[in-house]
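Input sequence (169 aa), recorded before submission:
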Amino acid sequence: MRHDYFISDHHFGHKHIIDFESRPFQDAEEMTRYMVESWNSVVGEEDKVFHLGDFSFLNRDKTKEIVNALNGYKVLILGNHDRGRSRSWWLDVGFDEVSEHPIVYKNFFFLSHEPMYMNKHMPYVNVHGHIHGQKYEGKSYFNVCVEHWDYKPLSFEQIRDSVVVSEEQ
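Predicted structure, token format:
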């Protein structure tokens, strides 16, 4: 059975992110190995992954090598660090789809890189990245940055069930 997964902010090749976000790696190469293994430990070839931005700081060849090593059908929503490269650049390195804008998923979830404004009366959930180790309060936001989830993509069911549980509390 095919599953949909969500994750953001790998920052492949960005050695300074290790210090900025207190990531537990000696260097960018160790970080890359761990993040690829973590992704593939939960995502199968038939699964679909929505990457919510800030994927790689590496050149075309190294980025392509990483994308090709990752399981699944990959959709990229461009993050602030991805926008220096064209949509066609990201397709060329192996993403199956690339969006410059947020995506509405299952008519209820807004997928975006940066958190979107959600007032307390909106029934929707914004699944986002960008803010790394921080978290927005409330039932309207769900942060899928790698730092919160041991560098593993989250399934739709994990997100849905977490949102439902928080609404019942």
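Checked by second reader. The CA atoms of residues 78 and 84 lie 10 Å apart.
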